[in-house]
Structures are given as structure tokens and as C-alpha cells.
């Protein structure tokens, strides 16, 4: 009886093994015994109205008050108006309401902003993002019930932070007017990180209203 070579037999064995294997895409459930697919957009939508907004409304202080304390004692301001459970190496994120008049606007960029005068001196005190592109993860970072250690990796945690911005733009900011904004009143609730140098604090809204043209 003719015997095949060892190499031929080994090659045939590999082919048979491959033919019997089922290739699954990355992240696909195996036998229904794998955790549900990570969906940060759905996670944000689930907590937005029932948990996040009540938290922010309760935590927020008037912008001038929050900013005044933050300039003198960042830690005290963060513990009172922010997330005391933040990661040690992260900057303090503050929750504030800002109400005043728009003194400047930039709607040419996708990262559109309005500058608001909250104390009536005619000068901008805070810059508010109105999207559609929003920078930073201030909304996520302001929440004391969000824990980095509950996420699989840094990529998932970053995507979760981005999902807050996406949700804010889709449900709130995209509905704001974009024309002739200067001189209008504005009222927002959101979170911000202290600006560096002479930059205005950049606030990401969770709630926002812009009044009619004067």
C-alpha cells in the first residue's frame, strides 16, 4: 500500500481543520455566551434625561460664582461644582449655568461657538460650543458616577465621552439658530475645563437656549 509523505499528510490535516472551522468577525458573540456589544451611544441615551440632567442641574452653580472659586482654589471648586472622583492626573471639570448676552459668534466652523457676557460689562466671560463638532469630554468627566475602571480600555472610555457630544448635538444644539446671533440672549447648562492662559473657558452644553433677535 502506498503511503503519502509526512508533509502531504500534515497539509491535508490542516486543510480539513480549516474547513471545519467557523470564522467569526471580531466582537461577534460565541454560542451566545459573550457580553452584549459595547454601544456608547445607547448608554448615553439611557442616562441622559433620567440621571445626567438631574445630576448637572443639582451640581451646577452660576458661571461667575464657579469661575471665581476655581481661580482661587481649583480643588475646592471641583469638589463643590465638579467630579471629586476624577482621575488624579485629570484637570478639574466644573458644572455651571451661564446666562447673558452673546457678544461674539463663530458659526463658519463646524466647531461653532458663541461667546457670552454673563456680568453685563460687554466682554465675553465664557465660550459655549454649539457644534456640530464639539471638543473635549467635559460632560462625561463631570459625572461622579462614571468610572474609567468599568470600561474595557481607554478606547471605549474615549468613545463614551464622544457619545455625550454626539447626543448633545443631535438632540439640542442642532436645533439652535445659526444666523444673526450677536446681541441675542443665551442660557446654558453644561460643563467646562478651565481655559489655559488667556483663553476663555470652553463650556459644552447639556441644555441650551438662544433668545430671539433684539
Average pLDDT reading? 87
Q: Order of strands in the sheet with the most strands?
A: 2-3-4-6-5
How many separate structural domains? 1
Could you name the CATH homologous superfamily? Answer: Nucleic acid-binding proteins
Beta-strand content: 15-25%
Beginning-to-end CA distance, first to last residue = 100 Å
CATH topology: OB fold (Dihydrolipoamide Acetyltransferase, E2P)
Number of helices: 6
Estimated structural class: alpha/beta
* Anisotropy-based shape: globular
SSE diagram, text form:
Layout: H1 6-19, H2 40-59, E1 61-62, H3 63-72, H4 74-81, E2 93-106, E3 111-117, E4 126-132, H5 138-141, H6 154-171, E5 185-193, E6 202-210
Parallel strand pairs: 1-2, 4-6
Antiparallel strand pairs: 2-3, 2-5, 3-4, 5-6
Helix pairs in contact: 2-6, 3-4
Key phrases:
6 helices, alpha/beta, 6 strands, OB fold (Dihydrolipoamide Acetyltransferase, E2P), five-stranded mixed beta barrel
Structure description:
- With 214 residues, this protein is α/β, with parallel strands linked by helices.
- It has one domain (38-210): OB fold (Dihydrolipoamide Acetyltransferase, E2P).
- 35% of the residues lie in helices and 22% in strands.
- It is built from 6 helices and 6 strands.
- A hairpin with a 4-residue loop joins strand 2 and strand 3 (111-117).
- Helix 2 (40-59) packs across helix 6 (154-171) and helix 3 (63-72) runs antiparallel to helix 4.
- The N and C termini lie far apart (100 Å).
- Residues 8-34 have low confidence and may be disordered.
Amino acid at each position: 500500500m502506498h503511503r503519502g509523505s509526512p508533509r502531504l499528510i500534515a497539509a491535508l490535516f490542516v486543510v480539513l481543520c480549516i474547513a471545519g472551522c467557523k470564522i467569526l468577525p471580531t466582537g461577534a458573540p460565541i454560542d451566545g455566551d459573550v457580553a452584549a456589544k459595547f454601544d456608547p451611544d445607547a448608554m448615553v441615551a439611557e442616562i441622559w434625561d433620567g440621571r445626567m440632567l438631574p445630576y448637572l442641574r443639582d451640581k451646577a452653580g452660576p458661571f461667575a460664582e464657579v469661575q471665581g472659586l476655581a481661580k482661587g482654589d481649583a480643588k475646592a471648586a471641583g469638589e463643590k461644582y465638579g467630579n471629586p472622583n476624577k482621575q488624579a492626573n485629570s484637570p478639574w471639570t466644573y458644572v455651571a449655568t451661564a446666562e447673558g448676552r452673546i457678544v461674539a459668534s463663530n458659526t463658519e466652523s463646524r466647531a461653532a461657538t458663541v461667546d457670552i457676557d454673563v456680568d453685563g460689562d460687554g466682554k465675553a466671560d465664557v465660550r459655549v460650543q454649539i457644534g456640530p463638532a464639539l471638543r473635549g469630554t467635559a460632560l462625561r468627566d463631570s459625572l461622579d458616577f462614571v468610572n474609567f475602571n468599568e470600561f474595557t480600555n481607554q478606547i471605549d472610555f474615549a468613545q463614551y465621552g464622544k457619545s455625550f457630544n454626539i447626543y448633545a448635538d443631535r438632540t439640542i444644539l442642532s436645533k439652535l439658530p445659526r444666523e444673526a446671533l450677536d446681541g441675542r440672549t443665551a442660557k446654558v447648562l453644561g460643563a467646562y475645563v478651565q481655559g489655559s492662559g488667556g483663553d476663555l473657558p470652553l463650556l459644552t452644553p447639556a441644555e441650551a437656549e438662544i433668545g430671539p433677535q433684539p
